[in-house]
Each structure stands twice: as C-alpha cells, then as structure tokens.
Amino acid sequence: MKQRIASVDIFRGLTIALMILVNTPGTWSSVYPPLLHAEWHGYTPTDLVFPFFLFIVGTSIVFAYRNKTPGPAVYKKIGIRSLKLIGLGLFLGAFTLSFPFIEPFEQIRFPGVLQRIGVVFLAASLLYLHLNWKALLGLAAFILLGYWVWMGFIPLEGQVPTFDRAPNNWANYVDLHVFGTHMYKPDYDPEGLLSTLPSIVTAIFGIFTGLLLLSERKDKLRRMLFTGFVLVVLGHLWDLVFPINKALWTSSFVLVTAGWANVLLGLIYYLTDVRGMRFGSLFSYAGANAITVYFLSSFISKLFYMISVGEGQSVHGWLFQTLFVHEGLPLEFSSLLYGLAVVAFYLWLGWWMYRRKIFIKV
Predict the structure, then answer these.
(1) What is d(CA 347, CA 338) in angstroms, rounded to the nearest whole number?
(2) What is the pLDDT of residues 234-288, one digit of tens each?
(3) By residue range, what is the domain housing residue 137?
(4) CB of 123 closer than 8 Å to CB of 86
C-alpha cells in the first residue's frame, strides 16, 4: 500500500490553482503587480508558481518510483509519459480554429510549460532511478555552477556575455539559433533550451524533499524549514553576481524558488500531516488530475480568446465585461475576480472528477 502524504497532494493542487490564476486575468492591461512576472531580473509571487510545480514533480517521482527497478518496462512508462506531456504542449501551441486547425508552421511555438514539464520529468526520473542522493547533489551543484560559468564567463562571438535581454546572452542566443521563429518572443523564450538544464535541478531539489518525507526521521519539518531558509539566503547572495531571473532560470532563481517551496510545503505538512488538520482537501482533488486540469484550463482559455461573439469581442472579453466589470469596482479587482472564478470552476471540476473516481493519467 502506497504511503500518502496529504501535504504533497495539497501542494500540487494549490500550485495548479495558482498557475491558472496568474494565466487567466480578466484583462492583462489591469493586473495587480504580484500577479505579474518580473519584467526581467528579480521575482514576484507569480514567478514562484512554475518552479513550485517542477519541485513537486521531483517529490512525486520519489513516491511513484521508490519501489521500481530500472528496466525496459519502467523506461517505457517514463518515456511515454514524457512524450504525452510534450505532445500536449505542442498541441496547445499549434491549435487554431481555422482549418486545418494548426497555426502556420513558422508561427508555432516549440517550447512551452508542458514541454518543459515533460523534459524535466524524463530527466529527473532517470536520474532518481540511477543515482543516490550524494550523486544527485553533486550533479545539481555541477549544473548550477556550470550554468553560471557558461552564462557569465564564456565569450559569445567575441563579446562579453550578459545576463540582460540582449543578443550576447547565451540562453537567448541558443534559443534563437535552435528555434528561430518558434519562440515566445523574437529574441527569447522563458521555457527555452539552455535554461531547461537548471530547471531539472529544481526537480532534483524536490527529489531531496521527497526522500526526506519518506524517511524515518523525526525532524522532517525542522529540516524542510531550515533547508528552505538556507536556500533562500544562498540564492539571494548568489543574486549579487548571477541575478535571480525566471526567464533565464538562473542558478540563484533555482535556489530561491526551491527554498520557498520547502518553506511552503513544510508549513502545509505541519498543518496536515503533523497536526492532522483537515485543510486544503479541495486543492488535493485538483492535484489528483493536475495535468488534465491545467491542460483543460489552457485549452479552454485559448478557445475563449479565439471565439468571437460579435463586434470583434471574444467570449473571454464578453464574460469579463458582462459579469465582472461594474461601476465603482477597480478594474484590477474585476480582473482578479474573473481569475478567481476560473480557478473556482477548475477546483470544482477536480472535485467532481475525484468523487467519480475519474483519474486521467498523462
């Protein structure tokens, strides 16, 4: 019988809810600053959300594969799941309502959130199956230090490299030359190729926490909180020479986000698994079908922007203007209410699927 740790399920579902919230405001022109990404360097609460999900992917890998023996059957299962995630991400990027329902090839974005989840899941699962925690720690340090050296010290076509959004930024340079027009922006992609390397370390930190949670240690909470505090401090110190940056997924960003993930998961662990409080069950229901809920939210949101209801207004715009925009309410608040309503719907959907024992494994 598999050991269930309530806090892990709640954390996963909470992260999905936050991903939906920050991705679906009523209008992007009026959003409270904490619900927007940092323009470049630095971070906001929104910048924590995606790394939190990759972190809990790593934690979940420990639960899923701790009794698995590496071999063809396990590799096949991991590979198929990774390809499904990548395929769903490519579908989201390519879908359009115009026949043949695919964007012109040169406009299709190749990287994306689900694609990165698929690649990180593949790499982290294989690493967990074949390396002990000491080897994983050594590899994580090697990647983070190596990424810093690559990004900050190796000349790029005779120029001094930069961490700014510029042609002589290594991550932007690699993405532009590999993906060309298939990127989020003409000069960079927040889920780009080179920055995927440190994002794997985010999942590795999640693996460490998963190993701790399944251990027989009595001081799990203290270790999670202490580890989180140390990582946040180290990340901010590294920020002095390697800026915290989500778009580049810098090494300092990895440490800071993994630190905050440990702190938040530790607090939820204390409330649910230590104190036994019935807290956050609604999030755990959504977490049971996390990828399905996220995919549906992204796909339906895209449809709502594409489908017109007349006079050039989309379904999204009509719903927002009709139901949420009222005289006397700040537009930012109306925009937030729309996002919260969308989150509420998908939390209900997660609950409905859970109650009917519908679990779609991606």
Answers:
(1) 14
(2) 999 999 999 999 999 999 999 999 999 999 999 999 999 888 888 788 899 999 9
(3) 55-249
(4) no
> Is the domain of 27 the same as that of 62?
no
Does residue 114 have a pLDDT over 90? yes
Query: In the predicted model, what is the mean pLDDT of residues 176-198?
Result: 92
Task: Say if residue 178 is in the same domain as residue 66.
Answer: yes
Q: Are residues 98 and 211 in the same domain?
A: yes
Distance CA 12, CA 59 (A): 10
